[in-house]
TrEMBL record:
CENP-V/GFA domain ranges (all copies): 6-114
UniProt keyword RNA-binding, yes or no: no
Protein name as annotated: Aldehyde-activating protein
Taxonomic lineage: Bacteria, Pseudomonadati, Pseudomonadota, Betaproteobacteria, Burkholderiales
Organism per entry: Pandoraea morbifera
Keywords, in A-Z order: Metal-binding, Zinc
């Protein structure tokens, strides 16, 4: 599966995005926040991500090493995406695959990622 453009957003629709992601390269992280929120993540360069609604409205949550800027809707509380850096320092977005419009989660097979030990 190659990169494909998807649209999505939070539950109430205040935060919306489009992103080019490869759904064959998703992860399910076991860090304390991803595990509790049930996140399935797909990563993309910032050039392949666009917030289409709610710019400047998201609340941000940082924890542990403060390297991922978790963005969540102040109305419904859903984290549709986050921002951070790849190991090479380039900016990236992490899309919550569960927030992609009309996603068939049975077609997504995330790779476990041990974020709890990082």
């Amino acid at each position: 599966m190659a990169n494909q453009q998807y649209s999505g957003g939070c539950h109430c629709g205040n935060l919306r995005f489009t992103a080019n992601v490869d759904l064959s390269k998703t992860i399910a992280c076991n860090c304390s926040i991803c595990k509790k929120r049930g996140l399935i993540l797909a990563f993309t360069a910032m050039d392949d991500f666009s917030q289409t609604a709610g710019t400047g409205k998201a609340r941000e949550y940082l924890f542990n090493k403060h390297v991922i800027r978790h963005q969540f809707c102040p109305e419904c509380g859903v984290e549709a995406f986050a921002f951070g850096e790849k190991p090479d320092g380039s900016k990236m977005a992490a899309v919550n695959v569960r927030c992609i419009d009309d996603i068939d989660l049975d077609t997504v097979h995330p790779t476990p990622f041990d974020g709890a030990s990082k």
